[in-house]
Fold this sequence. Notes:
alpha/beta; 11 helices
Amino acid sequence: MAKKDVKSPDSANTGGSGPRSSGKVSVVTGASGKMGRQLIKQLLWRGDTVRALVKRKEMILELPAGAIPFLGDINDQKVLETMCSGADYVFHLAAIVSAFKAATQEIMRVNVEGTRNLLDACEAGKVRHVVFLSTVDVYGHVRHDVLREDSKLDPRDRYGLSKVLAEEEILKYVDKVPFTIFRCAQIYGEGFEYYFFRVFRAIKEQKAYLIGDGQNKLNLIHVNDAINAMLLATTKRESIHQIYNLSDGKTYTQEQLFNLAADLLGVPRPSRHISRLIIKFVAKQRNIDVDELRFLTSNRNMDTGKIKGQLGFFAKVEIKDGAKEFVGEFVRTEGHRKALDLKNAHA
C-alpha cells in the first residue's frame, strides 16, 4: 500500500538510519494476523528481538523477516512459557474475532482460556509488561451515554463477552503481572481491507443503503495509530494496570463515513435507507456474515480523555487522509481485479 498520505508508525523517529538494538525482547501473539505483522515490523525497527507465536507452519512465511517464530496454540503452555521466558513485553493480539465463523466453545477457549494461560506464562517468565488488545464491543453495540473506562460493560455478542471475561482474567493478575488494556475502536487501514472494501464496492456500484437514519455514532482508529498507542504504553509507567479507550478521539455518523467514501470514489452519495430489522433479516436469510454489520449498526461515543491525559496520546492520522489512502488502495485493487477478470475471460 502506498504511504504518501499516511506515515507508518514511529516513522518520524527513524531518521532513515535503520534499526539499532534496543536490547529488549518482545512477544507478539496473533503474529500472522493483519495487525500482528505490522506491529512486528515496528518492533523490529525500534530494535527489539521479536518472538512471534503462530498456529500453523505455513504462517511462518507470513512473518516479517527477522521475527523468531514459535509454533503452537495459544493454549500450549510449554510453548508459551518458552516464548515468554525473559521477555520484556508481550503484546497479546491473538483472538477469534468473528462470532459468525466459530463455535462459542472455541471462542472462549482461545479468547479467555488462552489469555489466562498466557498470563501464567508471563508470570513465570517475569515479563515486564503485557499489552492486551480488547475491544469497544465490551460496552455493547448501542449505547446513548458517553463511554468512559468506568462505564458499565454490556456485551451483546459472544466476541464482546469473551473480551470482558479475558479482561477479568487479566485483572486477577494485578499483583503478579504488569499490564495495560486497550479497548479499541474499529480499526481501518492496511490489512483491514476485506470488510471495508465490500462497503466501498457497494457505494461505487450505487447499491449501498444507509442502515436506519444513518445518524448512529461510530468510532474509528487507523491501524498506525493503534500500533503507536501500544508501543507508547511500553514506554510509560503510568500505563501500568490501566484500561484505556482507544480511538482517533472523534465520533462520526454512518452517513458522514458513507458520504466521505462516495466523494473520494467520485460517485453520488447514498440516499436510500433500510431498517435495522430488515438488514439483519436479509443477512440471516442470505447467510451474510453478521459480524460485518456489527460496526455499521452500532451507536457508541467513546471518550478518550484518559489516554490523552495520562499518556499524552493523540491520533496522528486524520480521517480524511486515512480514508483517501484506503479508498485509493481500493480503486487500485479493483482495477487490478477487473484487468485479471478480463484477461481470464479471453484466455
